[in-house]
């Protein structure tokens, strides 16, 4: 047995939202990798996070999982695509967590959240805007909040020095610059080789 399959088996949990997961797979909606999801949920539980802000709802899959991570977790999640937002609202409304999740239709580059305060930020939208999202939404975080950024490997693009496509090269360079700026910052960082790469910032 290959090590990777051995670990995958040990990490596999019963899917809490099988219909939503199936819909995502069948319709190629990009949702968080299952190993990465386990790690993020564990951080939520260990930290005792109660107010999570998510950038990038898609159809509400990760928001529902986050709400289920521990008792009394509230999630505010922002999505700019109207169709995805509507599907997310329906999925959330039909779940046991409808009172725990607030889905906002807005471009996260411009959204305003008033005096809301969060103890956990999950960034999972347009990868080239990670720095912008980080700078904008850290203003809404309580002291000691935890930030996790998904897809920091950009599906392998990050380590490819020979990218021919100009737009892909630009995206790679933006994500590389963001990752480096976080490493060089005053924050404590962990770059985790799980899923498509998670960056944990404290
Ligand atoms: C990877 S998907 C999110 C997946 C979701 N977090 C999950 O794991 O179930 C990224 C989502 O971010 C949304 N998005 C991209 N740029 C955005 C922006 N500027 N503001 C809000 N949402 C954005 C996309 O429309 C897409 O639905």
Automatic annotation (TrEMBL):
Entry keyword set: Methyltransferase, S-adenosyl-L-methionine, Transferase
Single GO MF annotation: S-adenosylmethionine-dependent methyltransferase activity
Signal sequence range: none
InterPro entries, per database record: Cation-dep_OMT, SAM-dependent_MTases_sf, SAM_O-MeTrfase
Biological processes annotated in GO: methylation
PROSITE patterns: SAM_OMT_I
Membrane-spanning parts: none
One matching Pfam family: Methyltransf_3
Protein name, entry field: Putative O-methyltransferase/MSMEI_4947
